[in-house]
């Protein structure tokens, strides 16, 4: 009986800790984003345009911001599902893309990683490095974020039209078809539309607030886009194909790992996606885990460009 009570107390304490941490992180991210969108242009720039430099550290916190949204995607930001999803939707609106899209896209990534979702790979029998490179580098240097933001326009279409589009773009080497199919589901599409409208109003108002300094906000959002896009596939670039659990654990200095909410331990996350961010490092150490590379080195090696696959009778492998 004592062991049972101790176990129940431990689980209750864990829920309380998760609730406090998730709510605190959400609050911090909301404040920082409202600072970027409205406090800087309305309170600081009128005093001195040099305050525009305050947008730089905010852009550099993009990895932290995405990591908090990522916790909500996996239901780990708050123990209560309804509160978790409200937090996720609110943060996603500030990010610039509906939560329904980000959640569906990321969960499909877990399902199809290194099978359908392997963005750096091309088949030399059907294409070439020169043909694959433009699209690859566009996605790498901001294109991924641009696609997420541009998806807002889908809210203007009927759900049936989005489903038809899903069938039109469905191909074996992309998750675009399943992603649009999930977004078009009745129970999801209305949330998608509401959030898309909120994004348009919020960011439209922010650009108006910046006035003649609108380019500063655009530069800050472009910086967010580059960081998100560069980071996205660094954990999978060049790893074995047809292995959905395959992902790299990348080394970061301890303080930067905290800022990244341990997102750098991506291999551990793919194997145990139910772990909260603060549980990843203890689990990684308990298993005697070793990092595959440094984070900055892994990001930089993507500059090599797309990778051709060599197909034989047994399997696909990277050349």
Automatic annotation (TrEMBL):
Transmembrane portions of the chain: 21-44, 50-69, 90-108, 136-157
Entry keywords, A to Z: Membrane, Transmembrane, Transmembrane helix
Organism encoding this protein: Nocardia amamiensis
Name of this chain's protein: Fatty acid desaturase
InterPro entries named in the record: FA_desaturase_dom
Top-rank lineage group of the source organism: Bacteria
Pfam families: FA_desaturase (PF00487)
Residue ranges occupied by any Fatty acid desaturase domain in the UniProt entry: 52-291
